[in-house]
Amino acid sequence: MIDVDVSGLRAVKDHTQLRELVGEPAPVVVAKDRGYLDEHGLAFLERSPFVLLATSGADGTCDVSPRGEEPGVFRALDAHTVAIPDRPGNRRVDSLVNIVDNPRVGLLFCVPGTEETLRVNGTATIVVDEELRESFAVRGRAPKLVLVVRVEEAFFHCAKAFRRSSLWDPATWPDRSELPTLGQVLKDLEKSPEPVEAIDAALEAENRAALY
């Protein structure tokens, strides 16, 4: 791997140059954003077990974080409002820190085996309302926080990315042994004398204990 001086590469500098290169979107692409969740968006959301949450801090730094639930847990409170429980994690809370400073967020909802995705953009609020939190309880444990997103844009994204990547085709998946486990990554990072297997086992036990 080598360092590349990006400043020495030719780059697009403005909107006019960008449009000259890629052209204008078709009218149907512009019109597909209704600004709310219609019946198709609501049906997709109800079946989605996975969403990517994009945030940006006050200083402009960005972050994308995954959220996973049983289908149906990501909830539309109405056609203009989506609620997402915040389950226990590693307490870095990068996304939440960003939202406190800059509530603008982007959501990308996925449904396994479905090549289209649902994109939702809007403004997030970190809610601690007890009744709402309790409505998301799993195994008797309610989340401490719920993200409530006011929808400003909502539209489906086409299948090209999933088809190019063959993401849902198991025949294209790499052998798991070709990639390091998280235990191996942490062992190398911390120069730990612990065996990789022991670190992986401890991580798995922690994940199971803190799942909800």
Keywords:
212 residues, alpha+beta, 7-stranded antiparallel beta sheet, Pnp Oxidase, Chain A
What is the percent of helical residues? 25-40%
Unreliable sequence segments: none
Please state roughly what percent of the residues sit in beta strands, choosing from under 5%, 5-15%, 15-25%, 25-35%, 35-45% or over 45%: 25-35%
Q: What does the largest sheet look like?
A: 7 strands, antiparallel
In the CATH hierarchy, what is the class of the largest domain?
Mainly Beta
Q: How many β-strands, per DSSP?
A: 7
Q: What fold name stands as the CATH topology of the largest domain?
A: Pnp Oxidase, Chain A
Q: Give the SSE order as H and E letters.
A: HHHEEEEHEEHEHHH
- N-to-C CA distance: 39 Å
Q: How would you state the average pLDDT, rounded? A: 94
Tally the helices: what do you get?
8
> What sort of overall outline do the alpha carbons produce when their principal axes are compared?
globular
Kindly give the count of domains. Answer: 2
Protein name: Pyridoxamine 5'-phosphate oxidase family protein
Domain Pyridoxamine 5'-phosphate oxidase N-terminal: 38-158
Pfam family, one: PNPOx_N
